């Protein structure tokens, strides 16, 4: 049991830290653009984020799907199958980046107009988007390689590669925006170049003795069955990112409808804390994923379930700590982002109500990743897509009718409570052990 605890924290610690680092890319860009290029550039960049996030979601879907298969194959002692999954992922990412980027690059102006960009914002938004779309392959390879490295038994390496990319992004943001005066496009170039640096470091890892994933040309030619399995296995990850996009969009819409500009401004304070908690919970869940997948592949169901139990306990504890953290700082967080007066009071009230969602958020996130790792893709997808297409819209578009802005604040904890009830059913009543053998990929 003691060795299992050590193994658990060996993976979970770096993963949580790494997710916080990954989430810092956009924060760093926002700070530099806001200070170095002004409000117009900042608004233009904000318009493009939903578009760019969809590209990254696809990259995460294929990268994480392959990484799960790598961990399962390693657990089963089948290194050849692991190499095939990794090589197949590289080829799929290359093809997907071309198929996605070419039409997006050609039609980027009408796409951005559909996002609500005004003529004033169009030039900056188009220039910024074209750079990131042109470099989307770099982003997709970075995401895939880091996922595989983590599931290859080197979570600390994946974490430090992510840190190296972030530090490179900070330095290049300073050079391109403040020194060269490139504005928003400078931030885009900084992101692409920094992520390219992480990809190069990942290539060094795969050429080193640290891994047995030495692929050949034949490994780069995936079978249709392997492509499908990587896609299906990665669907929950795509849904996880899509759920974040949907959550922000729906909350913004309802906050503006029931609280006007003050309500939308107040929600920014709540969303900052939600993002912080979500990144930590995702890091916890992603750290458990390679362990659960490995023991699933090895058919060691006792340890597989034990890792799941550790994850549930840790996520519940982290959720309680996050709730008390938010309650303690409910009056300070609005000040940090420049809110005052009635808007600050509304934000503090929102933080107080919505903070209870953290109790359930981590358990739901861990369950979704756990089920993905153990071949229960339908259960994993139910928790993720059931959030963005079911529980959250149901709560967010009904509660405010009776409770106004309080209904907006209540939507998050109530929807998470509904999903938590689903987790309880899946875990205790549907059965925990995966009895179905792993099919060949």
Tag the structure with descriptive keywords.
441 residues; mainly alpha; 84% helix; disordered C terminus
**CA-based gyration radius:** 22 Å
Note the gap between the termini.
Answer: 32 Å
Residue share in helix: over 70%
Order of helices and strands: HHHHHHHHHHHHHHHH
Number of helices: 16
Shape, per Cα inertia axes: globular
Percentage of residues in strands: under 5%
Low-pLDDT runs = 432-441
The biggest beta sheet reads: none
Strand pairing plus helix content: what structural class?
mainly alpha
Subunit arrangement of the protein: single chain
What's the number of extended β-strand segments?
A: 0
**How confident is the prediction overall: mean pLDDT?**
78
Blueprint of the fold:
Elements: H1 2-36, H2 39-75, H3 79-106, H4 108-114, H5 122-134, H6 136-151, H7 155-179, H8 183-206, H9 224-297, H10 301-328, H11 333-336, H12 341-354, H13 358-373, H14 377-396, H15 399-403, H16 405-429
Helix pairs in contact: 1-7, 1-8, 1-9, 2-3, 2-5, 2-6, 2-9, 3-5, 3-6, 4-5, 5-8, 6-7, 6-8, 7-8, 9-10, 9-12, 9-13, 9-14, 10-13, 12-16, 13-14, 13-16, 14-16
Task: Write up what this structure looks like.
This protein has 441 residues and is mainly α. Helix content is 84%, strand content 0%. The protein contains 16 helices and no strands. The longest helix is centred in the middle third of the chain and has 74 residues, at 224-297.
Short summary of the structure?
The chain has helices spanning 2-36, 39-75, 79-106, 108-114, 122-134, 136-151, 155-179, 183-206, 224-297, 301-328, 333-336, 341-354, 358-373, 377-396, 399-403, 405-429. With 441 residues, the chain is mainly α.
């Amino acid at each position: 049991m003691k060795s299992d605890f050590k193994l658990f924290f060996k993976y979970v610690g770096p993963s949580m830290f790494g997710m916080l680092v990954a989430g810092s890319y956009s924060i760093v860009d926002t700070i530099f653009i806001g200070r170095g290029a002004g409000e117009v550039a900042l608004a233009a960049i904000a318009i493009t984020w939903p578009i760019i996030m969809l590209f990254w979601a696809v990259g995460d879907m294929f990268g994480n799907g392959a990484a799960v298969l790598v961990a399962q194959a390693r657990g089963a002692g089948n290194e050849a199958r692991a190499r095939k999954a990794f090589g197949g992922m590289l080829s799929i990412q290359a093809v997907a980046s071309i198929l996605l980027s070419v039409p997006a690059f050609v039609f980027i102006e009408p796409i951005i107009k559909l996002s609500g960009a005004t003529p004033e914002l169009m030039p900056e938004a188009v220039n910024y988007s074209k750079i990131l779309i042109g470099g989307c392959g770099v982003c997709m390879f970075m995401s895939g390689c880091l996922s595989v490295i983590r599931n290859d038994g080197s979570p600390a390496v994946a974490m430090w590669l992510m840190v190296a990319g972030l530090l490179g992004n900070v330095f290049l943001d300073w050079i391109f925006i403040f020194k060269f005066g490139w504005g928003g496009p400078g931030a885009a170039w900084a992101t692409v170049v920094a992520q390219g640096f992480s990809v190069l470091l990942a290539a060094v890892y795969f050429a080193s003795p640290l891994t047995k994933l030495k692929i050949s040309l034949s490994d780069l030619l995936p079978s249709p069955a392997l492509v499908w399995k990587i896609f299906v296995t990665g669907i929950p990850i795509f849904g996880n990112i899509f759920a974040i996009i949907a959550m922000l969009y729906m909350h913004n819409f309802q906050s503006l409808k029931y609280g006007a500009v003050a309500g939308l401004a107040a929600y920014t304070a709540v969303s900052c804390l939600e993002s912080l908690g979500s990144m930590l919970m995702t890091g916890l869940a992603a750290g458990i994923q390679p362990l659960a997948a490995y023991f699933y592949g090895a058919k060691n169901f006792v340890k597989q379930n034990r890792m799941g139990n550790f994850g549930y306990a840790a996520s519940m504890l982290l959720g309680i700590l996050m709730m008390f953290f938010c309650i303690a700082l409910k009056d300070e967080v609005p000040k940090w982002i420049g809110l005052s007066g009635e808007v600050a009071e509304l934000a503090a009230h929102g933080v107080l109500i919505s903070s209870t969602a953290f109790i359930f958020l981590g358990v739901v996130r861990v369950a979704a990743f756990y089920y993905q790792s153990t071949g229960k893709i339908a259960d994993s997808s139910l928790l993720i897509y059931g959030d963005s297409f079911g529980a959250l819209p149901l709560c967010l578009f009904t509660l405010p009718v009776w409770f106004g802005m309080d209904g907006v604040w209540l939507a998050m904890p109530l929807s998470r409570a509904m999903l938590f009830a689903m987790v309880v059913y899946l875990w205790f009543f549907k059965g925990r052990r995966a009895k179905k053998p792993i099919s060949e990929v």
